[in-house]
Amino acid sequence: MSLEDKIKQLVRPAIQAMTAYHVPPATGMIKLDAMENPWSWPDDLRAAWLDTLRGVELNRYPDPSAQSLQDVLRSSMNVPAQAGIILGNGSDELIQMIIQTVAAPDRTVLAPEPTFVMYRQIAAVTGMNYCGVPLGPDFTLERDAVLEAIRREQPAVIFLAYPNNPTGNLFDSGVIHDILSCAEGLVVIDEAYAPFADASFMSEIPRYDNLLVLRTVSKLGLAGLRLGLLAGNCEWLEQIDKTRLPYNLGSLNQVTGRFALEHKTVFDEQARQIRAARGELATGLQAFEQLVVYPSAANFILFRVPEGRADEVFAGLKQSGILIKNLHGSAPALQDCLRVTVGRPEENAAFLAALGELIG
Q1: Is the pLDDT of residue 24 over 90?
Q2: 17, 255, 314, 348: least CB-packed within 10 angstroms?
Q3: Are 158 and 110 within 8 A, CB to CB?
Q4: Host domain of residue 185
């Protein structure tokens, strides 16, 4: 039997049909495609961090529960005292753990669409069904449509990105409360972009036993650390924790995370600068009459270019040394759409200037 035949025989059809998550190379480019904090650490903070790392005993396994890091995260992210916490290697691992916990034949993961692609991808990997509920005009969460889908599908878990990726908007909180009251399964509010939004469901955890809240430090300025937090009902987290691999957070990650969050005021100020730059970038985009610019509560902005020009504009920007995200073709609702991360002022200016050359 040939290797190709062996792969076809042994690899599940759902896996064969998938495309691996692709991260484009960005060496030498203005990188505005991945929702990263564009500001590096101040030199004095970096020096203090390196001093801290010298005390790490790399010959020993890390604390399996990362308790001291949990304590700092609980305080810095205002996790209610009644809630439990699990830490993961980024929020992606926590999404995988949640789905693995409830995965079974004929069970369903539900999410509005378009949204974060990993909900669908991990559902497929675990063999679960996936139900995407189309968002309404201007990417609003349609109450009647989503509640009907919940009643019809009886999903084991619902994911709601808040703000939503890739659209950037905050869903109506009243509709989310209706979903929490209606759903028999878990409802996960993914707050990856919380540093840039004035809204959170973290304080609602004691009110709903089916509510889980996801957070990450990636957008705060620690994308290279890969550290996520899941908060929710302790009984649910006890079950989800059984899917966590031992020592999933290394010692360097734990020490770095604790150190960074002890200096969170630095990152809070950077988030404030990003929010201000977001407004300026939106104003710059809105100056182009050919564009539709969508409101954002995150650190990126979604915009729609004239029909049929998304690939051309994306390629032209790349040719100018600026990498953004081309969403055209990824979902029907995202036809002709591009997404740009809020960068430093000079990066945003370079992006707007290059865009003006292409569509001005």
Answers
A1: no
A2: 17
A3: yes
A4: 60-263
How long, in residues, is the chain? 360
Q: Summarize pLDDT for 293-306 with one digit per residue, the tens.
A: 999 999 999 999 99
Strand partners, 159: 188
Enter the DSSP assignment of 219: I
CA distances from 288 to 198, 305, 321, 333, 334 (A): 28, 10, 21, 21, 19
CA distance 240 to 66: 16
Name the region of 309 (left: φ>0; alpha: ψ -120 to 50; beta: rest). alpha
Whether residue 141 contacts residue 150, with contact meaning beta carbons closer than 8 Å, is answered with: no
CA 132/CA 111 separation, integer angstroms: 5
Among 263, 290, 313, residue at a domain's last position: 263
**Domain holding 294: CATH number?**
3.90.1150.10
Q: How far is it, in rounded angstroms, from Cα 75 to Cα 261?
A: 9
Q: Is the backbone of residue 106 left (phi > 0), alpha (psi -120 to 50) or beta?
A: left
What pTM, to 2 d.p., does this model score? 0.95
